Amino acid sequence: MHVQGDVDLPVKNPSKTKKMKKRKMEKWIPYLFILPSFLIIVSFLFYPIGTVFYYSLQYYDISAPYYNKFAGLDHFKRIFTEDDLFLPSLFNSFKWVVSQVGLQLILGMILALLLNQTFKFRGFVRAVAFIPWAISGVLASVMWSLMYNEHMGVINDLLMRMGIISTPQAWLSDTTTAFIGVVIAEVWRGIPFFAITLLAALQSIPEELYEAARVDGAGRWKSYIHITLPQLKNTIVLTTLLRTIWEFNNVDLLFNLTGGGPAHSTTTLTMYIAEQAVHGSNFGYGSALTVVTFGILFLFAIIYLKASRFEREGD
Amino acid sequence: MYKHVSRSFMAISMAATLFLAGCSDETATAPKTPKGTKDEPVTITFWDENAGPQRTPIWEELIKRFEDKHPNIDVEYVGLPKDSAKKKMDAAIASDDMPDLASVQTSWLPEFSIREALLPLDDYLEKSDLKDKINEGAVKFNKDIVQDNKLYGIPYTQNLDILWVRPDWFKEAGVKVPEIWEEFFTAAEKMTDKSKNRYGYTIRGGAGGSFQLQRLMFAYSGLEDYIDESGKSTINDPKHVEFVEKYLALYKNFTPQSDITNGYKEMIAGFDTGAVAMVQHNIGSFGEHSEALAADQFQAIPLPKTEEGNSVAEGGNTIGISIFKTTKNPEAAWEFASFLNSAESQSYWNQQVGQIPTNSDVLNEQWIQESPHIQIAFEVYNDPNTVLYKPPFYLPDYRTILDNQVDAGTQAVMSGKSTVKEFLDEWAEAMEKSEKQYNEHFKK
């Protein structure tokens, strides 16, 4: 909901007190307009976030309510000193985010540059390129799990026909290939996001800049480095930031393709939280893990925006 | 602005209070004038803990029959998928928003009863026609495992873990169908023919795999205690270490590689599509095999016997009907519960699913005499030498340990990341820790 700043509407009745009353009313009207969204944000965002912080200080397990009590900082102590899965999960999250955002950005950029050229059937190719983005996570995971299947998967079939492997592999059941398998599936799904936003940004770069560069004797590569990239900077910073947070929190493909296994080799921090809170119904410990995750993402966002000097040059 | 903030907070807290007040509809005690006995129309809600295309229609048929007999009682069916049913019931109990009655697995009774969610049914059963008809052992087990030794669930079906094998393949290869563990390991090896994409056995390495592993471990060792008097768990007993080492060594050699992430569906599909010769499950998957395979292509055999020649089964492998304390219509709920446990209903339900009824009036029916897999189950349960081991169902994190720690631990061994000894030691330690916490809390 947007609130218009200008609320000084012309007043017909010049009576002073009435005018003042109306002024006063008008002063409050914008707040009245934002009240519904404010209420929604408070009740569906701030309140749940508040309860997560609250439960992170409690022993709270709905399947064993008789053990529930105040925990103080016990959970945090356990996370940093005793928990054997916290650091490996955090490391998995790190690997996941870096590989996802990096690959999606590079491949998305290539796709956007290609789609920005003029060629026959461009509209059709553009539409096709964006299909993965429109496919729901559950459907995508069913598709990929069939493709990776040991007995009837198309990937094994192709690789065997090409003579690359001799026996069928269970790609998602091997601790060395499971992670890469899910990364490929998620990259496939995430490329269009970067392609769409970068393509939109590419189209807003004035053609004159390229013309001027050509006059100065710049080739394709030089115009890309000195014009395209700087012009895309804000878009890249914002999309990578958004995508980092999304990918950090993303579980659908991981959950459906491997469930965090085998042997926790694909358990990211978010998967680990789901395992603790959703599967184990240990909401106290799950909340504490969430608070730590929240802290990590919050710090990352601040540092990233500062370091990339977001918008400063664009202004 | 501040005023508005405080106002909206007030509004929210008021709304929240009203909402919470609406939720906490305290009716824990039975109302003075029981409804649903005569003409007054009442609605009761029934939760099924294993809904799906196979079982939901069976319940719907039974509900239809019940409503025809009791036009004043309307039964509302809510089907919960098997994997999340326990979580849903946990959440319902935590928020005091329970159904009137539900199909409840016996292993959940200790926890639900400590949380004071269920209505004791001893008096109801005592006064009913069902008295002395429901399997005595199963009823006694249900009382034994809860803290106050009351009856919180009337078992309507009993199950048994067995092996399903391909008799046609065994015959063709001239291999003996296993009766003892040594024969099982030999059969797994001999029945594997990778050139035909055929494996001797399939391991459930994914969700639910820990339950399978545990049942096989005890079937091998013949140990009766899960946790002994001194609070020590037998999980890392040398016999169990020996078994798990042999058993998980089958992986990849005589089982498919994808076994490490196998859930129930994948495991059964492996058998039903003709990729594996033996699979461990219970008699309840009869329906699925009979749909996929011809009658001479699958056969139920008991789990291999221990060195001493005993069969072993996990105690409490029953499902029962429980009534929740918050019900406003306990009489109507009992009416439905006893209807479900009548000979006619139990016969219908168990015949459709392929499990063992607990009502003695059903046991002589023809379909039971003609079902070899049910006969096998009877033989095992009626054998006086059969050992029934008791898992610590009363530990609130019993299931969580198995689901979160043991499933992943099995995968770690299968992928060579840890040794069997380390894995079983950690498993035993988790159970012992939980037992200690439980004892400190309840037995001070």
TrEMBL record, chain A:
Alphabetical UniProt keywords: Cell membrane, Membrane, Transmembrane, Transmembrane helix, Transport
GO CC, alphabetical: plasma membrane
One BP annotation, GO: transmembrane transport
Parts of the chain that traverse the membrane: 28-49, 96-115, 127-147, 178-202, 283-305
Protein name according to UniProt: Transporter
Main location class: membrane
Database matches in InterPro entries: MetI-like, MetI-like_sf
Species annotation: Peribacillus loiseleuriae
From TrEMBL, chain B:
InterPro entries reported in the protein's UniProt record: Bact_solute-bd_prot1, SBP
Alphabetically ordered keywords of this record: Cell membrane, Lipoprotein, Membrane, Palmitate, Signal
Annotated organism of origin: Peribacillus loiseleuriae
Signal peptide: 1-21
CDD domains: PBP2_TMBP_like
Name of the protein: ABC transporter substrate-binding protein
Coiled coil regions in record: none
